[in-house]
Design brief:
Elements: H1 2-10, H2 12-47, E1 57-59, E2 62-64, H3 66-106, H4 113-132
Helix pairs in contact: 2-3
């Protein structure tokens, strides 16, 4: 059972997935900083509020963190946009690689000089054997 577990962990898919999760976390931190430190202050200037994340709405004694929600929406939209372009780029690369492989498979390599000579010798020997038969 231990060996099966080691084989499972050693497979590329599990390692690739783990790397993807770590990279996703790091990317999320970058996007959150972009939204919090650069985009939100810009929106705050346009709306006349310096700190959008501090914007809260109070209704009947309940406090709603509207600014934090807007930050989360902006972060989501940025992450979704970047991931969209990454997936589209990968699809284009995969498509071009598939076309290249199809072209390579379709065009057989020409025989070498040795292969041509060996084919001629074979054909000559076959003709000689057929001519010598009674």
């Amino acid at each position: 059972m231990w060996n099966e577990f080691k084989a499972f962990i050693a497979k590329g898919n599990v390692i690739d997935m783990a790397i993807g999760v770590v990279m996703g976390s790091a990317f999320t931190a970058i996007v959150n900083s972009l939204v919090k430190d650069l985009i939100t202050p810009g929106i705050g200037i346009i709306l006349g509020n310096i700190d959008l994340s501090g914007y809260k709405l109070q209704v009947l004694g309940a406090t709603f963190g509207v600014g934090n929600f807007v930050n989360a929406i902006i972060s989501f939209l940025i992450i979704a946009t970047v991931l969209f372009f990454i997936v589209k780029s990968l699809a284009v690369v995969e498509k071009s690689l598939a076309k290249k492989e199809a072209v390579e498979e379709a065009a057989p390599t020409p025989p070498t000089k040795e292969e041509v000579l060996l084919t001629e010798i074979r054909d000559l020997l076959r003709d000689q054997q057929q001519n010598n038969k009674p």
